[in-house]
Amino acid sequence: MEFDRKKLSFLSSKLIDEIIKKSTVMEFPKGTEILKEEQYIKVLPIVLNGLVKVYSRFEEKELLLYYIEPSQSCVMTFHAALKHTPSRVYAITEEDSQILLIPVEQLPKWLRDYPEFNELFYYQYNLRYTELLDTIKHLLVDKMDKRLFDHLKKKSLLTNNSPVNMSHSQIANELGTAREVISRILKKLEIEGKVEQNKDGIKIIG
């Protein structure tokens, strides 16, 4: 399957030619689990179109770590691939997604021969480190109503969807809390005029 080379415009033309020759592009429908915990990495994903959610699972709860947007990759998958260790995270498509799958055996050579390929992952490390620090801050400092409202705004922005069509249980999983807590706080935000709930989902107002 072909793809728009502009999606990898941050790489040199020569490296893009190598990637096209050695890699595969696949379409994944929304809700497809493309990576499981303890799975050994055989391909490195770069999202071309769509959105992928990366999360951890603790007992029966999930905690959202970050999203992979177009032209981005999963830095934790990258690390596991280089070190030949099993994945410590899960990944699932949030939208219908087109993903470039790079065979991990190509990574050492390309990282050595093409310096800009290193830059891609240095950037990813910095981006994810910053996002994880923000997540920790939200967990330690922010009240759940602010965490929930900020999460819904980000979800709406990333998916370009308004209203956000998610169940209370799905939101609770992503924020690592109980469905009852989400339902109560959404009602509070609704009374405050910040959101509106209807059959189509949750609309951000203020």
Molecular shape: elongated
Regarding quaternary structure, how should these chains be classified?
single chain
CATH superfamily of the largest domain: Jelly Rolls
Which range best describes the helical content: under 10%, 10-25%, 25-40%, 40-55%, 55-70% or over 70%?
40-55%
Protein architecture, described:
By secondary structure, this protein is α+β, with helices and mostly antiparallel strands. It folds into two domains: 5-139, Jelly Rolls (Sandwich), CATH 2.60.120.10; 143-204, Arc Repressor Mutant, subunit A, CATH 1.10.10. The protein contains seven helices and nine strands; from the N terminus they run αβββββαββαααααββ. The chain has a four-stranded antiparallel beta sheet. It has a three-stranded antiparallel beta sheet with strand order 1-7-3. A two-stranded antiparallel sheet has the order 8-9. α3 (107-113) crosses α4, α5 (144-159) packs across α7 (179-191) and α6 crosses α7.
Any descriptors?
single chain; about 210 residues; Arc Repressor Mutant, subunit A; three-stranded antiparallel beta sheet
Could you give a short description of this structure?
With 206 residues, the chain is α+β, with helices and mostly antiparallel strands.
Would you spell out the secondary-structure blueprint of this structure?
Layout: H1 13-22, E1 24-28, E2 33-35, E3 43-49, E4 52-58, E5 61-68, H2 75-83, E6 90-93, E7 97-103, H3 107-113, H4 115-140, H5 144-159, H6 168-175, H7 179-191, E8 195-198, E9 201-204
Antiparallel strand pairs: 1-7, 2-6, 3-7, 4-5, 4-6, 8-9
